[in-house]
Design a protein that fits this description.
Helix content is 18%, strand content 49%. The protein contains two helices and five strands; from the N terminus they run βββββαα.
Length: 68
């Protein structure tokens, strides 16, 4: 079972799922995007960005079946 936590992103209530030590991806938000928290090892900081399903598949090599 995936580790999860609740978060609020600009009024959207999202559940973040831990994919790895450095990556958390939310459930899909009403704007058809996912919130992604990713640790940047070069800068040693967490970054928060939104991506579409296609972008997540391409950037992180994660199947859209995992995201559902």
């Amino acid at each position: 079972m995936l580790e999860s936590r609740k978060d609020n992103y600009y009024g959207f209530d999202v559940t973040m799922y831990r994919i790895g030590d450095h990556l958390w991806i939310s459930n899909i938000m009403p704007n058809a995007q996912y919130l992604v928290n990713q640790f940047n090892y070069d800068k040693m900081i967490w970054t928060q960005t939104t991506y579409t399903t296609d972008e997540i598949e391409e950037l992180f090599n994660i199947s859209n079946k995992v995201l559902k």
